[in-house]
Amino acid sequence: MARGRNSALSIDSAKSLLREAGLRCTAARIGVIQSLSDSNSPMSPNEVAEDLVEFGFDKSTIYRSLTELDESGLVVRLELGEAVRRYELLPNKGNATSNHPHFLCITCGKVLCLTGFHVDVVADSGTSEFSLELTEVLLKGRCEACC
């Protein structure tokens, strides 16, 4: 990725995120972070690979990078009830927004970030058998194009 890509998240910023997470700064990881940062919705591994096709990364490198970035806490893997996983940059990393629900079109499969929504989950008093780590909220319906 010597020639770089036109991204809202600079290569130096991506490198800084990788170093903070204790990961080596490889071209594939930098590209994946920039691709996710530039997207306005969670991306499948195939979408990330398509976005980075000009750099010649094979799909296994993209999948491995996504897995490593997920394990390091830089990105989150979303299980949206589809056969394919989606990934997005975690809040406070790059250009990602705070925790937000997602919308899945049941007709075309389009996934959208609902950044204009905020969801709070508050336990009733006396409920202390568990501690919530991460809450994923998925709303399903039909997008504007499919209505």
TrEMBL record:
Named cofactor requirement(s): Zn(2+)
One annotated GO molecular function:
zinc ion binding
Q: Which UniProt keywords apply?
A: Metal-binding, Zinc
Q: For this chain's UniProt record, which GO biological process terms are given?
A: negative regulation of DNA-templated transcription; regulation of secondary metabolite biosynthetic process
Q: Which organism is it from?
A: Blastopirellula marina
Cofactor binding note from Swiss-Prot or TrEMBL: Binds 1 zinc ion per subunit.
Which one Pfam family would you cite for this protein?
FUR
User: Which residues are noted in the entry as Zn(2+)-binding?
Assistant: 105, 108, 143, 146
Q: What is the lineage of its organism?
A: Bacteria, Pseudomonadati, Planctomycetota, Planctomycetia, Pirellulales
Q: What is this protein called?
A: Fur family transcriptional regulator
